[in-house]
Amino acid sequence: MRTADRAFGLLVLLALGSGALLIALLAVLLPHGYALVAGGSADTASVVAVLVLILATFGVSLGLASLFRQLLATLSLIRTLLSRRVTVSRRVADIAAPLDLCGRVDVVRDVRPFSFCYWFRRPRVCVSTGLIKRLDDAELRAVLLHERYHLRQRDPLRLVIARYFAAGLYVVPVVEELVEYYTVQKEVAADQAAVRAMGGVRELASALFKVLPDADDVDLGLLVPVGSLSVTEARIEQLVDGRAVPLALSRASVALSGGALAAAAVLMFSDVHPAPLALPALIG
Q: What's the pLDDT tens digit per position in 46-61?
């Protein structure tokens, strides 16, 4: 859990620092861009300012539009699943009640075995009938303990915040890699919480093993900590060997991110005023 919290803290600090630098850069460039568009001198600074502003606006718009589409698709899929909601059985209610999940578990009619935590202000847990039929009571309890961790941590909201940073800071690709690392760490932390509560790994590992044949069919594509039973190498290694998931950032991502931030800093703090270019005014 601490690793996941540290990952989120690092992600937020990097996103806020990068965002502040880029916003400051845009504030510096805006007057140059306005002067060029308004028919002023077409010096190098003004041309660069306009190009940077256009690229930044275009990139951020694409990133946020993609995030918005994912959110809409997620909400639509959740509503579709909830339209197939059925009455919570006595068996599920009896397992959920001691976990303080009474009234916060939705059972939906679906042959696919899945569960996930959803909504932001007051999260809930969704479990499919296919999953309930496949697991015994101990295994189902382990799954609900996993989801309870996500629910108590408000992970759906946290993940959307992380995705928002990644979408807005497209020029800092290392942020996207940190989001992926954070997502894995949250799943590992939820597994660890379930293992501690169960007193061992057997029940959760058994639940993962039982859904393994359908692992390729339970990726619902939700923009929330879904795939609680998705079998990933990192989760299996953590459960079986207790092996920590390392933070591995690609060299290309680090280089591109560092280059973008360094260039932004140079542009923002540069006191050089090049001679005007021989360019006509954009607006006469």
A: 666 667 677 777 777 8
Query: In terms of Cα–Cα distance, which of 146, 157, 171, 239 is closest to 25?
Result: 171
What is the percent of the chain where pLDDT is above 90? 29
CB neighbours (10 Å) of residue 279? 13
CB 122 within 8 A of CB 190: no
Residue that has been written with the tokens 């005014």 in this structure: 281
- Rounded to an integer, what distance in angstroms lies between the CA atom of residue 64 and that of residue 61? 5
Q: What is the mean pLDDT of residues 65-79?
A: 85
pLDDT of residue 41: 57
Give all strands of the β-sheet with 85-86 in edge-to-edge order.
85-86, 105-108, 124-128, 115-118
First to last CA, the chain: 61
Distance CA 199, CA 192 (A): 10
Q: What is the residue whose two structure tokens read 């939705």? A: 106
Write the CB contacts of 25 (distance below 8 Å, at least 6 apart in sequence). 52, 264, 267, 268
C-alpha distances (whole Å) from 44 to each of 65, 180, 249, 269 are: 31, 39, 35, 16
Phi, psi of 232 (to 5 degrees): -115, 155
Is residue 215 within 8 Å of 153, Cβ to Cβ? no
Q: How confident is the model at residue 228 (pLDDT cuts 50, 70, 90)?
A: very low
82-129 pLDDT tens trace = 999 999 999 999 999 999 999 999 999 999 899 999 888 899 999 999
Burial 245-277 (b: 16+ CB within 10 A, else e): beeeeeeebeeebeebbeebeeeeeeeeeeeee
